[in-house]
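Box 3.1 A note on notation
Throughout this textbook, protein chains are presented in two layers. The first layer is the amino acid sequence; the second is a token string describing backbone geometry. Keep the layers aligned when reading.
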Amino acid sequence: MSGKANFWDLITYSVLWIASIALYFWGIPAWVILRDFAWTADTGMDGRTLPNILAVGLFIVTSIGIAKTLPLVLKDRKAKTENNKNAAGAGIKAGDDLYTKIIPLLIFIASAIFIFMFSNFGFPIAVAIMAPVILALLKAKKWYCYVSVYAFAFILFIVFRQVLNVPIP
């Protein structure tokens, strides 16, 4: 994380932190139906193991994000208050350009399109089409960003399909 953070970063971390708690205690037990699989008896794992790990991971990551972002936001708010006092008579207004204001909405729309493509066309096609779109929205220009996304998607596909025997569309 860079030295800058805004209030919305803190809000996002807080919402995801609350969502991770809700998923762990209320969401996952209701959503995941337990079935008997031959491999679960030997490993102590069941259908809720991976979702629980993800919920705990989300909790840890968002807790770290809150811990890192909160001091920066408080420092930034204090600096903005002083800048606004100094610039009150000069007509100076701090603001972001249009792209930085609309990028979260564009990423959300691209994610929704990805989910639609995933469920209708399958994981490989959805990743092949939507990964470069999302990276382009994020203004990623390095070739290795694109290669690393495809490599990660390939590894996920292999792990779920071959190792965990989870059918992926």
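Residues 90-95 have pLDDT under 50 and may be disordered. The longest helix spans residues 49-86.
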